[in-house]
C-alpha cells in the first residue's frame, strides 16, 4: 500500500489488522503518524522522503484566496446576513 503521509493510529491499526506485506510512506516529517504501531504489527515500512517532503512544504506554504481576492488565513471575521447569529451557524 502507498500513502502520502504516515498513517494515523486508526489507519496503522487497520494496516496491521489486515497484515499488509509492505507500506510505502511518502514522508513522515509533516505528520509523524503511528509508525510504532506498524512496527509492533511486523509491517515492513519504506519511506520515500525528499520529493514528497518538498511537495508537502510547497502545498502547506500555498495561501489560498477567497473570491474577493483576500488571503483566506488573513480574513478575521465573516459578515453574517441580518437575522443570522453565530449560534445558528456554529451551534
- What's the domain count? 1
Structural class: alpha/beta
Helical amount among residues, as a percent range? 25-40%
First and last CA, distance: 39 Å
- Mind summarizing the main beta sheet? 3 strands, parallel
Q: What's the rounded overall pLDDT mean?
A: 76
Number of strands: 3
Ranges with pLDDT <50 over ≥5 residues?
87-91
Shape: elongated
**H/E element string?**
EHEHEHH
Number of distinct helices: 4
Question: How are the strands ordered across the major sheet?
Answer: 1-2-3
Relative strand content: 5-15%
Specify Rg, calculated over alpha carbons.
20 Å
Can you offer a commentary on this structure?
The chain has one domain. The protein is 35% helix and 13% strand. It is built from 4 helices and 3 strands, in the order βαβαβαα. The chain has a 3-stranded parallel β-sheet with strand order 1-2-3.
Notable traits:
disordered C terminus, alpha/beta, three-stranded parallel beta sheet, single chain, elongated
Short structural summary:
This protein is an alpha/beta fold and 91 residues long. It has four helices and three strands; from the N terminus they run βαβαβαα. Strand 2 (23-27), helix 2 and strand 3 (45-47) form a beta-alpha-beta unit.
List the helices and strands and how they pair.
Blueprint lengths: L1 E4 L3 H9 L5 E5 L7 H6 L4 E3 L2 H12 L24 H5 L1
Amino acid at each position: 500500500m502507498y500513502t502520502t503521509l504516515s498513517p494515523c493510529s486508526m489507519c496503522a491499526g487497520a494496516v496491521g489488522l489486515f497484515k499488509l506485506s509492505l507500506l510505502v510512506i511518502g514522508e513522515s516529517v509533516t505528520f509523524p503518524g503511528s509508525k510504532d504501531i506498524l512496527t509492533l504489527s511486523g509491517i515492513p515500512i519504506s519511506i520515500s522522503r525528499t520529493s514528497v517532503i518538498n511537495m508537502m512544504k510547497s502545498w502547506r506554504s500555498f495561501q489560498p484566496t477567497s473570491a474577493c481576492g483576500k488571503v483566506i488565513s488573513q480574513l478575521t471575521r465573516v459578515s453574517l446576513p441580518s437575522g443570522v447569529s453565530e449560534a445558528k451557524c456554529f451551534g
